[in-house]
Amino acid sequence: MVSKVVREGLMRLSHVRCTGVPLFSVFMVACSSPTGPTVHDVLAHQAIWAAQHLGTYSFTFQVWASTYPIECPTAEWQITVQQGTATGSACVATGQATSTPRVTIDSLFADALAAASAQRLSTISFDPVRGYPTEIAYAGPPDAAPVFRVTSLRP
Length: 155
Fold this sequence. Notes:
This protein is α+β, with helices and mostly antiparallel strands and 155 residues long. The protein has one domain. 26% of the residues lie in helices and 32% in strands. The protein contains four helices and nine strands. The strands form two sheets. It has a seven-stranded antiparallel sheet with strand order 6-5-4-2-9-8-7, sandwiched between helices. Helix 3 runs antiparallel to helix 4. It is flat, with a radius of gyration of 15 Å. It starts with a helix and ends with a strand.
């Protein structure tokens, strides 16, 4: 269960190439608890994130999925957020500015909460200090269950 903003942003890319899902994400999903993370788990960390009062920051966002955009072959972007809105993204592999994805930490929390409510969240990991999600794995078949990874968050 991926938000409309994230889904539409990734689907706007007109060319994709197929690749396999990394093996470790399969093990991660396979080893998750039968019920998965709860809404309470996500809300507790969202409160830690909200207490940081960070409206302007940047982070690296990576998508592990069965298709990747040709314009960003590694599916890894540097995202810039200003006043809570994603204002820019650049492909890490090429350095080229891209129009997608437009994600924020808040939009990732919204996706995770919706997925947890629908029992479609396999696993989620959080930064121990700032509370933001560092990895989100959605339930479903490998070709329809992306894994999102957040690294290098800088205020």
